[in-house]
User: Which sequence fits this backbone?
């Protein structure tokens, strides 16, 4: 009886593996290190070996992978973090399995975070969903009618790289300036705060730290610090613009925010919601803006969802 | 043999009706006036009567409608131009037909312009498409995996109402300021030109006209007029931003521009493409940006596509 789904979240340092029943109940999870030597050529066989030790493949309906790079039709186009160039995950893993009765699928890691929240998180029961992951960078995932949008070049859901800031124009890792990621990721919020501190003489508790995190900026804002508050409002405004853009193009049932920055909770989400509503009125109404629920496990849940 | 599709494009003054074979070949088209009296209550029966005069319903596989308002699951939520509030087109037209063997579907008019271009126009064979209709306003349509995205409130594809202009902030009919429509529709381009003329003493051939059209602005720009050129570049920049946003969220196979403003041809489209590439690099590459081919017939083609 094929009643097991496997979800694999491949990161630059560790690979998370989860074993689920068909309803998405997590039965067991574990991690193995990511072997990036030899252009990551041993990653898939390491995953195969580790799962084989713990699972009878006869029971497995399918295995899904989340990968930190662009993916089209389960083919990874490039993945700098793993050393991968063109890797046909479905084909290569099926060859390792040596059997055709196990589905193999792959998608981008930010996309599978979205499908994870749909499977067992903040967006259960929804089929049209947008998700932002506000971490070191800003990732995004888009689901339309129950299917993740990979896009022609695997750029579907790359919401972090919409250019939104035409004033500060902070440089982005992607080569552009003013991307959402430069002002709304954990790094971006710190940079925005440093910018405001340098451009003003106003007292701020942030000045008492030689360095600080995005969490510190939120904590200070919650305590009433003027500069920190301005940074949070500005980040929320940019996030609201992109959220409104998603609402006016896809008009999803729900928008989910995950990643470390979203731990700021309703303090941030309510501000994003107000701006998103302002920029999308009167068309896209009553779209819930919610926090993600699965934390770092979203990837394994979402990867398993690919083969549910 | 059910080998006929009917496409109906309901406008505020006229209703266009097209009869197609299953491959989307237009066999016959005609128009009837739109009777907006009594809250548009006779519109569907007028359509039914007109088609019945020309067609044996036994031959008809389905009938699709394009309607100028938000539509969800073939239910029109509101349509000011027709006097409609909540109208369940599928249910009401099926009742008029008195038979269950003819599919009835409806979607927004800008959405069906998109599916029309997919059926027989500039995007034939594509399943993931974004279309902008640059007319008096700016409409949009999004297709994902062969299906139009209506969205939760029927706001799917409302690309004209993304806020893009945080400088001039021209008022929009929707109640917001700075929507794409305020700077990139035919009206918007004229307003942008008048704004630039009023803010500068620079000579411009546009000053020789007491009033002018968007086409005039393009003609002057093509002839080298500096102010007209600046207006075109600015409109292309705004269109490029939203196009890049669509590319980074959905990464479609092709982006189509229709409507009167798109008649400016490659002079406009090339400028949009350069900006879209600049704002989406390096993620969404090689996305063709093309002009629509079906003109005012896109609606009937696209409505027929809904029931193909």
Assistant:
């Amino acid at each position: 009886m094929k009643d097991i789904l496997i979800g694999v979240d491949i990161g630059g340092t560790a690979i998370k593996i989860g074993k689920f029943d068909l309803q998405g109940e997590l039965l067991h999870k574990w991690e193995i290190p990511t072997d990036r030597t030899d252009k990551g050529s041993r990653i898939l066989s390491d995953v195969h070996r580790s799962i084989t030790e713990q699972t009878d493949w006869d029971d497995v309906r399918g295995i899904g992978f989340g990968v930190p790079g662009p993916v089209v039709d389960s083919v990874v186009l490039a993945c700098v973090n793993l050393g991968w160039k063109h890797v046909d995950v479905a084909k290569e893993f099926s060859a390792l399995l040596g059997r055709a009765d196990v589905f193999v699928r792959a998608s981008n890691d930010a996309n599978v975070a979205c499908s994870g929240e749909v499977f067992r998180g903040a967006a259960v029961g929804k089929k049209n969903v947008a998700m932002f992951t506000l971490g070191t960078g800003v990732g995004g995932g888009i689901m339309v009618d129950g299917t993740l949008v990979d896009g022609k070049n695997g750029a579907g859901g790359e919401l972090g790289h919409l250019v939104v800031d035409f004033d500060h124009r902070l440089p982005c890792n992607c080569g552009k300036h003013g991307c959402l990621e430069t002002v709304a990721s954990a790094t971006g919020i710190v940079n925005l705060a440093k910018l405001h501190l340098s451009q003003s003489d106003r007292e701020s508790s942030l000045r008492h730290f030689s360095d600080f995190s995005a969490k510190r900026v939120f904590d200070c804002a919650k305590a009433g610090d003027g500069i920190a508050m301005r940074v949070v409002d500005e980040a929320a405004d940019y996030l609201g613009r992109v959220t409104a853009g998603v609402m006016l193009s896809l008009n999803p049932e729900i928008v989910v925010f995950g990643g470390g920055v979203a731990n700021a909770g309703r303090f941030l989400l309510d501000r994003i919601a107000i701006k998103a509503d302002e920029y999308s009125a009167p068309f896209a109404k009553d779209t819930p803006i919610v926090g993600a629920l699965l934390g770092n496990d979203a990837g394994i849940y979402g990867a398993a969802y690919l083969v549910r």
